[in-house]
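Case study B.
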Amino acid sequence: MAEHHEELDEAPPPPTLDPETAARRRAALAHVRKFGDPVLRTKARPVEVFDDELRDEVRRMGALMHDAYGIGLAATQVGIVHRVLVYRVESDSPVNALVNPEIEWSSKDKEWAEEGCLSLPAVHVDVERPVFIRVKGFDEQGEPILIEASGLEARVIQHEMDHLDGVLILDRAPRDQRKEAMRALRAALESDAAA
Ligand code: ZN
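Model:
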C-alpha cells in the first residue's frame, strides 16, 4: 500500500552500530515514553514563556533524538506536556524546533507512507497524510516562524503534531494493519521489560 518506506519518527539506524553508539541509542530510547504511558494520550499545553528552561528542553530533546536515531520527537514523548517538537530530516542539518505549531494550510493532495514511532517499538504502519503543509509557530527564542514543507518534512511535522494532541499512528493505521501492529508492539514491550 505504501509507496515509500520512510520511518517516522524513528529513522532506521545504520546496520552495524559500534558498541558505544548502540549503548547511547539504548540509553536514549529508555528516556522515550512507550505505548501505555498515559502522557502519550495527553493533549499538550501551549508554551507561554520562552525562557532558558524551554531552550534547555529543546536542546535535550534534540540530543535525545540524535542519540536515538530519530528524525523527530515531540515533548510528550519525553513526558513534557508542552506543545514543542523537534525534527531533522537530513542527518547532517541542524535540529529544527517548533513551538506551539499550528497547521495553517494543508494540501488536498494526500499520500500513504509507512511510519514508525520511537514510542511504539516494532510498529510500522501505513499512514495517509497531506503532501504539502504550511505551519506557523515559534522557534525556541519566541520568534515567529512559518514553514512550508512537503514530503518527508511535512510528514514528520504532522506525525509530531499528532503526538501533541495525544494521537498515535496506530489511530491512523488501516484497520487490517492495526491488529498485527498491536501484536508486534506487545511482544516488543514485553521483551523490553524482560531485558
Ligand atoms: Zn512518534
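The mean pLDDT is 92. The remaining cases will be described in the next quarterly update.
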